[in-house]
Queue: 2 jobs
Job 1
Amino acid sequence: MMDESPSPLLFSSGTRDLTTPHSRPEDQAEEFFSLRPSSLREYIGQSETVETLEIAIAAAKKRGEPLEHVLLHGPPGLGKTTLAHIIAHEMGGRLTLTSGPALEKAGDLVGILTHLSEGDILFIDEIHRLPRMVEEFLYSAMEDFAIDFVFDKGVHARSHRFRLNRFVLVGATTRVGLLSAPLRDRFGLFRSLDFYEETDLVRIAARSADLLEIRLHPEGAQVLARRSRGTPRIVNRLLKRVRDYAQVRGDGHIYGKTVHEALALEGIDALGLTPLDRRYLRTIAEFYGGGPVGIEAIAATLQEESDTLVDVVEPYLLKTGLVVRTSAGRRLGAQAFSHLGSGLREVEGRK
Ligand code: ADP
C-alpha cells in the first residue's frame, strides 16, 4: 500500500516557500515577506494574463465554484509562484506549495490531495518533472475530484474511489512541451508569461525600493531595469546588491552611476548578461565557430547541466536574438560577436 504521510518536502503557504534552484533562500525570505505582490491589482505587467485571471476569478466567485485549474508557463523568476499566491488570496483558499521532483511516489501526492479543503489551491512547480506514476493519479483528481485505489491483483482486484474536496491546481513549468497531452488538456486556463518590458521592470524596481526603504533615483531604476534580463526576480536581487554597494561605497542613494559600478563588480554587463551567459556565448563563438552546435556539446564544454542552460540561460538569449535556434543546433546571432567583444572589455577592464 501507499505511504500516506505528507511529503517532508511539502511547504505550506503562510509559513515557508519553495526553494527552487533558481532562487536563493535569502532572496526568498525577503521577497516572500515584503516584495511579493499579494493581489492582481499590485501585480505589474503581463496585462493579458492578469485580465484573463481577473475575469476567471470573478466568474468563479459569482458562481460560487472553485476556479478552473491553471497552467502557467515561462522562464524562472517571471512571477508564476506569485500568481499562485495571488489566486489563493483572491479566491480565499489556503495555498500548498510543492514541486514535480518533490513528489517522488504516488503516496506523496495522495497525502497532499487528501489534506486539501474545499477551494484550496495546490501549486506544483516544475510540473513537467512529475514522475509518470504520480501524474496518472492527478488525472482523476483534476477531472473528477477523486482518486481510484486498486487493491490486490488479477481476479481479486477491487477498486475503491476516494472523494476529494474540490481544489484548484496551479501548475508551473519552464517547458510546456514536456507536459503529456492528458495532463495539459486537464487545465482550463493556460497562460505563457513573457519577459517583462523595461517600463514594467522600472515600476517593479521602484515598488521594491519603496518597500525596502531604498533611495532609488529614476535613472538608477532605468539602468537596473535594462540590466535585469526582463525578469522581476533579477531586478529585486540586483537592487539588493546595489543597495549594499551604495551604503558602503556611496551616500546610500542609488543613481545610474551607482548601478553601473555595482553591477560591473557582479560581472553583469550592459545587456544584463551574467558571466555564465557570456561563457555560453563565447563557447559557441570560440569552440564551435559560431555554430550551429547541439546543446549537449555546449553543456559538455561548459561542464554545466544542459537543463540549466535550456531553462535559465537560453530563453533570454533567444529572446534578444543573441542566439538563434535552428534544426541543426544553436548558432550565434549577428550582434553576439560584437557584444562579446565590448562586454568582455567592459567587465574585464576593471580587473
Ligand atoms: P517564478 O515562480 O516564475 O519563478 P516568482 O513568482 O517566484 O517567479 O517571482 C520572483 C519574484 O519576482 C517574486 O518574489 C516577486 O517579488 C517578483 N515578482 C514577480 N512578478 C512580479 C510582478 N508582476 N510584479 C512585481 N513583482 C513581481
Note: The chain has three domains: 12-192, 198-266, 275-350.
Job 2
Amino acid sequence: MGLFNRDRCEGKTPEQLAGMRTAGLLVARTLELLSAEVRPGMTTLELDTMAETHIRDHGGVPNFQLVPGYRHTLCTSVNEEIVHGVPGARVLREGDLLSIDCGAQVGTWNGDAAVSLLVGGPDAGRPEDVALVEDTKESLWCGIAALRVGNSLYAVGAAVEDSLTASGQRRGREYGIVEDYVGHGIGTSMHMDPQVPNYRVSGKGPKVLEGTTICIEPMVVLGDQDNIVLDDEWTVVTRDGSRAAHWEHSVAATSTGLCVLTALDGGQARLHELGASYSPIDAA
Ligand code: MG
Ligand code: MG
C-alpha cells in the first residue's frame, strides 16, 4: 500500500465487526480490572503483569508486544508522562495521575483503549488533575459522537477540540491538545491507516465508510502541548512538566449507528446522552 492510501477508511463486514467486538471487550474488561485494582504502593510492572495474565487467560495476545522493540502489555504514563510510559519498578503514589493504555488481539482482530485515573481515587488528586481527567474523557466521547458514516473523519477531531475549549472556558483554563500523536485505524493490526487527529485540521479528510473501525485517543495537558521523548526512547513527557491525561476507545461506525468496541456497554449509555445513535455489535 502506497502513500496514496494513507488517508482512506476501510469498511468491515458484520462478521469482521463481531471479531472486533470480541477483542474490544477483552480490552474493556482488562482495563476495568486494572482500574479496580490499582492502589498506592503498587508498581506499574505489577499492573502490567496483571493485564498480561488476564488477556492470555481469556484467549488474547497482548498486541503491544507485537510492536517491534516493545515487551510489555501496557503503557503506563504517570503525571507529566503523556503516552508510551514503560511499566517498571516505579511505585505509584497517592494522587498520581496515571494513564493506562492497553491492547489485545483475539484471533485476527485487535482492540486498543486507554483510561486515566487518580491513584487513591479522585479525593486523593489535585482538583486540576481531576478536572483534566474528566474533561479529557468528555472530549473523547464528544469525538466518538461526531463519527458518522458518510461524513468526514475530521469531524471527530473538531468535536474533541470544541469540547476541550468549552470545558477549559468553564474552568478558567486553556488545555493543550497534543498534536504529535494521533488516533488511527484498527483491525487486523492495532495501528492502521487512516490517521485520526484528536484536534481540528483543515481539509476535507477521508470519508467514513460503512464498517469503519478507528481509535480516537485525545492526549490533553494542563500546560503547553510541547513534548519530548525520554532516553528510554518510548516515554513521551511534557516539556514544561505539566500533567497529562489520555483516554482512548476503539469505535465502529455503521449506517445504523455507533458501537464503542472497547466499552463494556458498547457505549449505549453515553451515546444516548449525547444524542448519537447506538448500534449494538454482538461479540463473535
Ligand atoms: Mg492505545
Ligand atoms: Mg491507539
Note: The two ends are 29 Å apart (CA to CA).
